[in-house]
User: Fold this.
Amino acid sequence: MIPELGNFALALACCLAAAQAVLLLLGAERRDARLMAMAPGLAFGQLIAIATSFAALAWSNAISDFSVQNVAAFSQSQAPLFYKLTGTWGNHDGSILLWCLVLAICGATVGAFGANLPATLRARVIGVMGAVAAGFLLFALTASNPFTRLSPPPMQGQGMNPLLQDPALAIHPPILYLGYVGFSVPFAFAIAALLERRVDAAWGRWVRPWALTSWCFLTCGIALGSWWAYYDLGWGGFWFWDPVENSSLLPWLTGTALLHSAIVVEKRESLKVWSVLLAIVTFSLSLSGTFLTRSGILNSVHAFAVAPTRGLFILALLGLVIVPSLLLFAFRAPILAPAGLFAPVSREGAIVLNNILLCSIAAVVFTGTLYPPFAALVAGEQLSVGAPFFNSTVLPLAIPLVLAMSLGPTLSWKRAALFPALLRLWWVALAAAAVGIIVALGWHGLAALGFAGSTWLILGAIRDIAARVRLFRLPLSESLSRLAGVPLGAIGAAIAHAGLGVTIAGISGMTFAAQRVVFLHPGQATDFAGYHWALTALDHVPGPDFNAEVATLPASRDGRIVAVLHPADHTFPVQGTDVTDTAIRTNLVVDLYTALGAVHDGGAEVRLRYDPLAPWIWLGALVMAAGGGLSLADRRLRVGAPARRPSLPSPPGGGRRPARAAG
Assistant:
């Protein structure tokens, strides 16, 4: 009965989404106040319906209802309850339902907090989101229904992919989707602006919080996925330029560009066309990532293996969203003339340069990711594009990007002088050069470049805040009092820039990583990276739905035990799969990393790694997201831009027209 309720709620949500699209867009076009007033109600109705459907699927997983095909294929009764519940979205059908749920949450949030929006704009935004939701809900109903019954039901389910039975990866999809789908709101604002033929400072101020929120979630989602790959797959790497990893990086790059260009729209009413295009492209890349991971085109440990018909459906849906959006942009963009002009050397100019570099990196990653499947489809050639290509093409673009990130905040708006701005950064540049030279003396050229860039970003962020409070120019107490008056948005931006510097330092530190693979029997030991590693025990430990071989591996230095690590190898009998469970000891500066390989003849293959600064990779990502969160707390992002009143008529007898007032 519960699955039927979920299926009915899914169908109801599809109908409400279609009504949301048709009625609201029609009402906005006709300026019908009654139709436009239905926007919040329809958005909340759709949310309630999808939430009911999602809860029904979660309940079916929790009670192991194997009469539901989705539950039988991706769950089992012996699995812990946590993984039963997270298994709701750990498969293709459930993940599409989660996508629809997040999209409905975004629409309802606009309805709840969009009361200060013009009625036509709010109606168009929620109507566009309803149209996107209707397409995905129709896909969920027809080609990817999670409530399909199975008769007769099996006694036991096949179980979730063991690789996905991990706490970090269990919460990874919801956080990542909040980023992916969250960019549907800036996309809807962009389409609504094109329909209304108007983009102004208020539009930039309305879009920024949504783009910033989505960017924060996407940053955390990517970091969680990278962390999972590092500690769960047993390879010891954090980024492999995997096609699915790239598909999440692409909207992050263009979303970062959107964040910065929206600032210029708000402050200078410039970059309107660029911002609207970035909003469309960012959400289009989010949709493209959904298609690539579910069409079977890409081979990846992250990808869903699905039938080609589902891929064709998503491709058609992708075309119905992207093609009309770009056509509308092509016709309406010329009327979005910029109101504010600026010189190339200015803060706006630095933002434009950064955006060009970010989009260039995105273009390189997009080409490298899609060229192999395209070549296979057209020419039948099997090509592989890996890390060497991406590293050699992205690095030359990343260097000027990092340089401009610290230089931009020193420039004034509209027009600036380059040389005085460089002088303000003299000690930052000196420190970055010193760090780079010291590291380069150890014959690590790329690491030297990375540490120099990291120092440049971190100290540049500190200099920005220090200059705002006039540190060392005023008494310390007065500088601290001035700090309270610095906008949270400015502090958050500096923290986010510094966070990227921390991540770059972590990546650079990994160039000094060392690794050894040895075969040990209990009682044997080896010396590696200045530590003495001993295998003292190898135990067989049964689990709820797996069997495990667990090693006890103390690591000592100078006769003192530093850590006792327990790497394991899990065997899942139902799936017939082995999964490595790594053991990592970290002090947030160095990771001692161990993974258990093949176990035979009374011994085990052990992978030992020494990873300097590895934790900084993900710590930096959290700092970036924290900076974005702090910026969201800025009151300026919660208050709409003042609307401009129509200009007053000229007074009788000529004379000057009164200045336009802000309402």
Observations:
- The two ends are 55 Å apart (CA to CA).
